[in-house]
Amino acid sequence: VDLQIVSLTDLVEESIRSFKAGYKREVNVFVEQKMKVKTDPQKLKQLLYILLDNARKYSEDLIKVNIMTIKNRAVIEVVDRGIGIPVKEQSKVFDRFFRVDKVRTGKNGGFGLGLPLAKELADAIDAKICLSSVEGEGTTVQIWFKKGPSH
Ligand code: ATP
């Protein structure tokens, strides 16, 4: 783990720039407050990329990324308005090789390894991942940093 003090806004914007270079998808960033956190930037970028990639695969319109503080913690969230995940499957999506529905999601050819890796990356940078989803409406995945933002 290579800890550095990084600006979340800059890191998120950089990740989205490289994501947009690969995929023609619209991504909106909303910054409630500019903030810095102590983290491993490479790992955080990789983690964000997994979440953006899932949002891309399982939705068709605008992807939103919000940077904010909740209960004095720095939080990044990736929000899509896509197919969502049924409640009974939500606890399994962090298991290796789990995919909600091979028919429904088959054309994207995933292996069910993205979210388990995202979880490992989050553990490595001492952050928590929190997924909430409504089937047919969309999915929100939050990354909660342990420490509050430094300015
Ligand atoms: P890959 O290994 O290429 O990342 P994957 O997307 O199938 O493939 P995960 O990222 O681990 O693997 O996700 C597991 C499953 O959770 C997916 O197959 C999909 O069914 C569901 N899922 C993940 N993110 C979303 C999302 N944003 N919207 C809807 N379903 C999702």
TrEMBL record:
Entry's Gene Ontology cellular component terms: plasma membrane
Alphabetically ordered keywords of this record: ATP-binding, Cell membrane, Kinase, Membrane, Nucleotide-binding, Phosphoprotein, Transferase, Transmembrane, Transmembrane helix, Two-component regulatory system
UniProt lineage: Bacteria, Bacillati, Bacillota, Bacilli, Bacillales
Histidine kinase domain span: 1-149
Source domain of life: Bacteria
GO molecular function, one term: phosphorelay sensor kinase activity
Protein name: histidine kinase
Subcellular location: Cell membrane
Chief localization: membrane
